[in-house]
Amino acid sequence: MTLNLSIGTLLIRLAVGSIMLIHGIGKLFSIGPATMPMTQFTGFLAGLGIPAPSVVAWIVALVELVGGLCILVGFLTRFAAFAVAINMLAATLLVHLPEGFSDSELTIVLCLASFALVSIGAGTLSIDELVVDDRSRSMLPVGE
């Protein structure tokens, strides 16, 4: 992997990972700039008609927190990025897009950037680079 691609991948990881981590912390610990306590988030999901809103709220919060942290440090990046991408796709379609395109721009970018990480992986500046076997790097049936 070239240095430019490694730096570019790192920048994508820093952006996606930090945003997701901050939102997960806001939900689970009710602190930070993106605070929405779990009770409020559960009520919000219930208002949308989401089945089992308490369970879904915990899954979303954990994907944001754990997935964001994994993406940030580059550990199990493809799996974490896939979970975050699905999370952001659901948030876009169910919450933000019905409010208009401007309200959904961030979730669309986070979703697409996460799918990009699924495709290209964490890059050389990551924990994955240190611990993942070369033969298992790609989740996709395409050459690297």
Ranges where pLDDT stays below 50 over 5 or more residues in a row are 140-144
- In DSSP terms (H or I, runs of 4 or more residues), the helix count works out at 6
Count up the domains.
1
Number of strands: 0
- Which descriptor suits the 3D outline? globular
Task: Please describe the structure with a list of short key phrases separated by commas or semicolons.
144 residues, mainly alpha, 6 helices, globular, DoxX-like_oxidoreductase, transmembrane, transmembrane helix, DoxX family protein, DoxX
Structural features, described:
This protein has one domain. The radius of gyration is 16 Å and the shape is globular. Helix 1 packs antiparallel against helix 3 and helix 1 crosses helix 5 (101-120). It has helices at 3-29, 38-47, 53-73, 77-96, 101-120, 127-131. 72% of the residues lie in helices and 0% in strands. The chain contains 6 helices and no strands. The N and C termini lie close together (9 Å). The protein is mainly α and 144 residues long.
